[in-house]
Amino acid sequence: MSRIGIFGGSFNPIHCGHVALARELCQSGVVDELWLLVSPLNPLKQGNTDIADFNVRMEMALLALKDDKNIKVSDFEAHLPIPSYTYTTLHALSDAYPDDEFYLVIGADNWLQFGNWYRGNDIIKEFHILMYARPGCDIDMEELPPSVTLVNTHLYDISSTLVRQRAANSLSLSDLVPPEVENYIKEHQLYQGSRTP
Questions:
Q1: What are phi and psi for residue 23, nearest 5 degrees?
Q2: Whether 135 contacts 109, CB under 8 Å
Q3: What is the widest separation between alpha-carbon atoms in the chain?
Q4: Domain boundaries, the chain
Q5: Whole-number Å distance between alpha carbons of 113 and 117
Q6: What is the pLDDT of residues 125-139, one digit of tens each?
Q7: What's the CA gap between 54 and 41, in Å, rounded?
Q8: Which of 67, 71, 106, 130 could form a disulfide with 110 if both were Cys (CB 3.0 to 4.6 A apart)?
Q9: What band does 52 get if pLDDT is binned at 50, 70 and 90?
Q10: Residue range 132-155: average pLDDT?
Q11: Is the pLDDT reported for residue 159 higher than 50?
């Protein structure tokens, strides 16, 4: 049975923090593989008009991780009903791959709003959760349920919002995204109409 980390999100766009964290989780041995699930529509981000097309976000993620054998970019959620709720996704994955064990990977910022997630308490009861640190998010280890593990990873202070801001102002993205992703964003003139504050 393989332990598979499920790292879901909009990845709008994928950035160096996402890539480094995915690699670090695989290298740490807490999971055997990591599947990066690009979400068609995050239920908590509905109304966001600054989101690139799903296929575009998939292409950028594939470019960023093309050389990583233990990291798989997946469109699994694109085949599920929209909006894609994590609880539904985890059960669909478990049904589709009964010989594997799935671990949900989330940031500490997401943990702090986990009470807003659809069937969040059921996720905690039924699945393992691997949480990574995020800037400005203090977590009380003693209050974590047994199914939640805080993974000792580096702190990556990069956001997709910052990438979109830089792209909107035609600034360099070289320190924020892999070169292939920066070239893709420039070539396709992505986020040029961004009004992200």
A1: -65, -40
A2: no
A3: 48
A4: 2-156
A5: 7
A6: 999 999 999 888 999
A7: 8
A8: 106
A9: very high
A10: 92
A11: yes
Token pair listed for 70:
């233990």
Structure-block tokens of residue 9: 């999100």
pLDDT band at 42 (very low <50, low <70, confident <90, very high): low
CA distance 143 to 107: 16
**How far is it, in rounded angstroms, from Cα 27 to Cα 142?**
26
As given in the structure block, the two tokens for residue 121 are 């308490």
**The amino acid at 9:** G
pLDDT of residue 89: 97
Angle at 152 between CA 19 and CA 146, to 5 degrees: 115
What phi, psi does 58 have (nearest 5°)? -60, -45
CATH number of 2-156: 3.40.50.620
Q: How far apart are CA 74 and CA 143, in angstroms?
A: 32
Q: How many residues does the chain have?
A: 197
Rounded Cα distance, 170 and 194, in Å: 11
Chain-wide mean pLDDT for the chain?
Answer: 92
What SS3 state is found at 163?
Answer: helix
What's the CA gap between 114 and 197, in Å, rounded?
25
**For position 49, what pLDDT does the model report?**
60
Q: CB–CB of 150/111 below 8 Å?
A: no
Residue with tokens 């393989």: 2
